[in-house]
Amino acid sequence: MPTSVSREAQAAIVRGMAATATRYPEPEDLDGWRALAAATDEAVRGMVGALPALGGEEERIDLGGLPVHVIAPAGLAPDDRRVYLDVHGGAWISGKGEVCRVRGALTARSVGARVWAVDYRMPPDHRYPAALDDCLTAYRALLEERRPEEIVVGGSSAGGNLAAALMLRARDEGLPLPAALVLSTPAVDLTESGDTWRTNLGLDPVLTGSLMPAIRLYADGHDLRDPYLSPLFGDFTKGFPPTVLASGTRDLLLSDTVRMHRALRAAGVEAELHVFEAAGHGMFLGNTPEDKDKAREIRRFAEREWARAAL
Questions:
Q1: At what angle are helices 98-111 and 289-310 packed, to 10 degrees?
Q2: Rounded distance, CA 10 to CA 297, Å?
Q3: Which of 93, 222, 208, 220 is nearest to 159 (CA)?
Q4: What is the spatial distance between Cα 134 and Cα 159, in angstroms, rounded to a whole number?
Q5: What beta strand segments (E) does the chain contain?
Q6: Hey, which residues does 247 pair with through a beta bridge?
Q7: DSSP 99-121
Q8: Mean pLDDT by 10 residues, the chain (311 residues)
């Protein structure tokens, strides 16, 4: 147990290490995948069920069958036009409905801005490119209401994958890019070729093993090196927004995050990298000092980029 982090973070590591590894169903067992997604969502609801009321205003809009949760934090000025387009994680199979809404509310409180939380379609019933199509639909709709400089896009884990892929897809389809992008422990190389997929195996208290069964279910036979599936392999010289990336020293996806940062820097894209001591996938999943530190960094970055874009 590292003594270099807070007691709260140490406790989170202990809890995570006691968890059992995810057992994925066989590819053809669709009911098994649905049951796994439901169980995962129930576990997340149990984790956040004790949260105090977040306040603010909420509404659910429908974009041609795509639900989007629009959430304004308490105290937001009526004339504040900033919007954070939030793409949830969950290994492409979980995080829908109420979980999406609650995560969006937490993000709204954290960044201090209005959030559009995209409740995108997922496997096993809707595979690639359904989720990316939905994110693009939401981004197009948001561009009808806001200028691109008023928008920040963000996502974690599988949501980071989709958020980064969305930037490539939007650019390739001629859409203006947002003020900035936030990638928290993003899965940007679905081939899992990065070093920490091996070196951190057994050390990450959250992500306990390979995501390849879920990746293959999501990808539905498409080439995993396609940049819309693995954004790391995209061409960033054609345009990409300023990006902040966050990971931890125990994160299985640390290599994905570090390599994405280097690829962006090599292409001349403004990019910040924050790596947190002893943090696994998704940090410490709670209210630890380290989680608050990360939230402050992301909010600082987003506020700075919103201000810069508005000039």
A1: 70
A2: 21
A3: 93
A4: 12
A5: 57-63, 66-72, 83-87, 114-118, 151-156, 180-184, 243-248, 271-276
A6: 275
A7: HHHHHHHHHHHHHTSEEEEE---
A8: 95 84 92 95 74 76 97 94 97 95 94 98 98 98 98 98 98 98 98 98 93 97 98 98 98 98 98 98 91 97 94 81
